[in-house]
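FAQ: What does the model actually see?

It sees only this:
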Amino acid sequence: MKAVFAVGILVLLLGVLSFVVPIPHSEHHGISAGDLHVGVNTEHSDRLPPAVSIVLVLAGAGMMVAGRQSVA
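And it is asked to produce this:
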């Protein structure tokens, strides 16, 4: 049960961090014709939707509660 508690802490921290830390990603758009290549790289930093962050926080808290309770 301690493993569930530890995973719950990790999921809870990821949920809290997802509110403020953007996730960077890049895209490449271009065309190639023989030896000629024309393209542009774009980079974006987007945050997760708030609903996903809330689900992560609630799931982490639930896992912590479930992992803390003893089976005895």
